[in-house]
């Protein structure tokens, strides 16, 4: 037995990893990562401790980027947003240069020409998910679409239905809308997921009640890229005559989605995740059999009365063009993304004590979430100023809270803290992937050298035998 | 219906695509459009009927206009070079 207290006072550098002190065990990586986080607590530390930023500065010193090259980071945060495709911008510019009519003005040609472009966009978006253009309602983004579905459907049927089912790993805008519905007196079941991030279909079926108004399950998860069995969920919902909503913000255009084959009644889309402009999205609302919902925004009755307000022709038409391109090029884009993603995943997992988070098979390859044991994700991100990435937690805000999605998979704080999400997209190059693999490998090794726990691991000390003293 | 374009016409259109793709200031867009043009013209070799070839040619002509405008815009609004890009502008691609 060995006391960690002694260790910490010798190697004060251990402070780099000061987070929580907890000790849970599942896989080796979990153990290792937990041990990392357990190293130091404030009362153990000498006063002249190097801060996290000092360590990051040291890392920067050690890894100067090529001075003959530029300084702008490589963009690898495709789940947060994607670059606007130049072909999309080309479409949009018309509306800032000549086509300025209000699409709802039906008394003159300025209105008609803009309206015609909107309807073209609507068709392109409908085609992408196998829907009828009349079933597409434009919104300000997937957040609004999700709010409309989660709040609108149960409110409309509230006389007879009082129950909503969703999943713990959904995007914050689903979970927060569900919370609001709880305040309004609805009951919400939050399904758990397994270690692979997938829901249990039996558990879903068992959760359905006679008064269930809506089931909402996302297709592709934004943090770990796991794909839920949407078609099977659709079948279950149809059998029980419950409406099925799916947040497909990260799925549309990336994996094949068909609302009829998958029995989806409502579906959310976001333009800026498919190389379109930000600030626009859509919700698909099934017409046969008709799905009714209480609108959130009322007024002039545009968009079948479900979403009033003058439409934004430039954004919508850019969104439509983005949908057309990603639909036409899905196979081509995915081939490229799959190839680069495999190279990246293989390269990162070649490092010792790393693990891929979420199912290895039911996943969208463009989203790679990896845990690096004995390294804290935030420290690694700070040491990686030349690559634009997100740690599992930074998705919704700049909070340093560990990711609730990784928690739902059974990961503890330490593992969640040591995770980084890599997003590969249409415009990512092989050269960038090679750079990233090299940079991550060097810097993970560098940061691990600073960790006293890494020394112990290398010496073959079983971290489980250590008595964590001082608490 | 007009007759299908000649091989010379197709090759010249292909060169125009590459020329304009290379003119993008943005590293990612430049590399994408070079790759996309190459692959599109390569897969065009499998087109058989006159009609298929003519349609693809007409569509590509319209796409070339987009590429011309957008590569110009990319030069009008330029940003710092990426960490994988040489500052002197000569790029191995
Ligand atoms: C799964 C998922 N749903 C919803 C959203 C929100 O989309 P938007 O930015 O269009 O409101 C996002 C993006 O962050 C997402 O990843």
Automatic annotation (TrEMBL), chain A:
Keywords associated with the record: Iron, Iron-sulfur, Metal-binding, Pyridoxal phosphate, Transferase
Top class in the EC scheme: transferase
PROSITE patterns membership: AA_TRANSFER_CLASS_5
GO cellular component: L-cysteine desulfurase complex; mitochondrion; nucleus
Superkingdom assignment: Eukaryota
GO biological process, one term: tRNA wobble uridine modification
One Gene Ontology molecular-function label: cysteine desulfurase activity
Catalytic activity entry: (sulfur carrier)-H + L-cysteine = (sulfur carrier)-SH + L-alanine
Pfam family, one: Aminotran_5
The keyword Transferase appears for this protein: yes
Domain Aminotransferase class V: 74-436
EC number(s) per entry: 2.8.1.7
Names of the cofactor(s): pyridoxal 5'-phosphate
Function recorded in the entry: Catalyzes the removal of elemental sulfur from cysteine to produce alanine. It supplies the inorganic sulfur for iron-sulfur (Fe-S) clusters. Plays a role in both tRNA-processing and mitochondrial metabolism. Involved in the 2-thio-modification of both 5-carboxymethylaminomethyl-2-thiouridine in mitochondrial tRNAs and 5-methoxycarbonylmethyl-2-thiouridine (mcm5s2U) in cytoplasmic tRNAs.
NCBIfam families linked: IscS, PRK02948.1, PRK14012.1
Family under the similarity heading: Belongs to the class-V pyridoxal-phosphate-dependent aminotransferase family. NifS/IscS subfamily.
Identification of the protein by name: Cysteine desulfurase, mitochondrial
Organism: Wickerhamomyces pijperi (Yeast)
UniProtKB/TrEMBL annotation, chain B:
Domain Complex 1 LYR protein: start-end pairs: 9-66
GO BP, one annotated term: iron-sulfur cluster assembly
Gene Ontology annotations for the cellular component aspect, listed alphabetically: L-cysteine desulfurase complex; mitochondrion
Matching InterPro entries: Complex1_LYR_dom (IPR008011), Complex1_LYR_LYRM4 (IPR045297), ISC_assembly_LYR (IPR051522)
PANTHER family, A to Z: LYR MOTIF-CONTAINING PROTEIN 4 (PTHR13166:SF7), PROTEIN C6ORF149 (PTHR13166)
Similarity comment text for this entry: Belongs to the complex I LYR family.
Protein name stated in the entry: Complex 1 LYR protein domain-containing protein
Originating species: Wickerhamomyces pijperi
């Amino acid at each position: 037995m060995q006391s960690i207290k002694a260790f910490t006072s010798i190697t004060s550098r251990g402070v780099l990893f000061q987070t929580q002190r907890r000790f849970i065990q599942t896989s080796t990586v979990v153990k290792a990562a937990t041990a990392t986080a357990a190293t130091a607590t404030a009362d153990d530390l000498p006063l002249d401790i190097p801060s996290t930023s000092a360590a990051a500065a040291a890392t920067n010193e050690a890894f100067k980027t090529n001075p003959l090259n530029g300084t702008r980071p490589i963009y690898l945060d495709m789940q947060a947003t994607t670059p606007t495709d130049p072909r999309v911008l080309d479409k949009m510019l018309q509306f800032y240069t000549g086509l300025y009519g209000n699409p709802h003005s039906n008394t003159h040609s300025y209105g008609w020409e803009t309206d015609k472009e909107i309807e073209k966009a609507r068709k392109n978006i409908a085609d992408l998910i196998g829907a009828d253009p009349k079933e597409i309602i434009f919104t300000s983004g997937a957040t609004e679409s999700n709010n409309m579905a989660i709040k609108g459907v149960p409110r409309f049927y509230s006389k007879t239905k009082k129950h909503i089912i969703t999943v713990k790993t959904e995007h914050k805008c689903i979970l927060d809308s569900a919370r609001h519905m709880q305040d309004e007196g609805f009951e919400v079941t939050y399904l758990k997921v397994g270690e692979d991030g997938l829901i249990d279909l039996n558990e879903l079926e068992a959760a359905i009640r006679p008064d269930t108004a809506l089931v909402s399950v996302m297709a592709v998860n934004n943090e770990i890229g796991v794909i839920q069995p949407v078609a099977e969920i659709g079948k279950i919902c149809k059998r029980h005559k419950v409406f099925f909503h799916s947040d497909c913000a990260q799925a549309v255009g990336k994996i094949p989605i068909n609302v009829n084959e998958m029995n989806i009644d409502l579906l959310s889309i976001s333009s800026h995740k498919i190389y379109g402009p930000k600030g626009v999205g859509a919700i698909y609302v099934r017409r046969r059999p008709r799905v009714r919902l209480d609108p959130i925004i009322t007024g002039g009755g545009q968009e079948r009365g479900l979403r009033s307000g003058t439409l934004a022709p430039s954004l919508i038409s850019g969104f439509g063009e983005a949908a057309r391109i990603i639909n036409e090029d899905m196979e081509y884009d995915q081939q490229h993304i799959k190839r680069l993603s495999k190279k990246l995943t293989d390269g990162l997992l070649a490092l010792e004590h790393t693990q891929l988070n979420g199912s290895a098979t039911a996943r969208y390859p463009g989203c790679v979430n990896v845990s690096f044991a004995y390294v804290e994700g935030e420290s690694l991100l700070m040491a990686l100023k030349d690559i634009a990435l997100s740690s599992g937690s930074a998705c919704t805000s700049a909070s340093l809270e560990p990711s609730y999605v990784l928690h739902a998979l059974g990961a503890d704080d330490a593992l969640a803290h040591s995770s980084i999400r890599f997003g590969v997209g249409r415009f990512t190059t092989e050269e960038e992937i090679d750079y990233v693999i090299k940079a991550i490998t060097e810097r993970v090794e560098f940061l691990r050298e600073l960790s006293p726990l890494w020394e112990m691991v290398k010496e073959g000390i079983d971290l489980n035998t250590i008595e964590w003293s001082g608490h | 219906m007009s007759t299908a374009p000649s091989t010379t016409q197709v090759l010249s259109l292909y060169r125009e695509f590459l020329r304009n793709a290379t003119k993008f200031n943005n590293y990612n867009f430049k590399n994408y459009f070079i790759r996309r043009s190459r692959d599109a013209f390569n897969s065009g070799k499998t087109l058989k009927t006159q009609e298929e070839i003519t349609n693809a040619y007409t569509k590509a002509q319209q796409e070339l206009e987009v590429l011309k405008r957008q590569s110009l815009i990319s030069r009008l609004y330029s940003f710092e070079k990426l960490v994988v890009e040489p500052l002197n502008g000569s790029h191995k691609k």
